[in-house]
Specification:
37% helix
Length: 112
Amino acid sequence: MRKSYRIKREVDFQTIIKKKQSFANRNFVVYFNQNEQNTHFRVGISVGKKIGNAVNRNRVKRLIRQSLFELKDEIKPTHDIIIIARPNIVGLSFDEVKQNTRHVLNLANLIK
């Protein structure tokens, strides 16, 4: 994903989380907020240390990024999204991560 699709700053993370609009399933928690630019969605990914060592955390982030890249045409362009991975995600295949990502975004009504 291009850099314009990413949320990196701590201030942006905190403002989205403070709005308290969230949905969750067994593997993800999703916080979202309406964005101002309306040109495309932006996403921030958080993977905590409960997931495992740096190798496991980076693998999970890569899987989430790739699943979002494949779903980007289906995601509504009017929101900023924070995805937080839960410990159950360790060991899942790419297809399972993509299916869970689609499920939680569908729960949050962020899929067209």
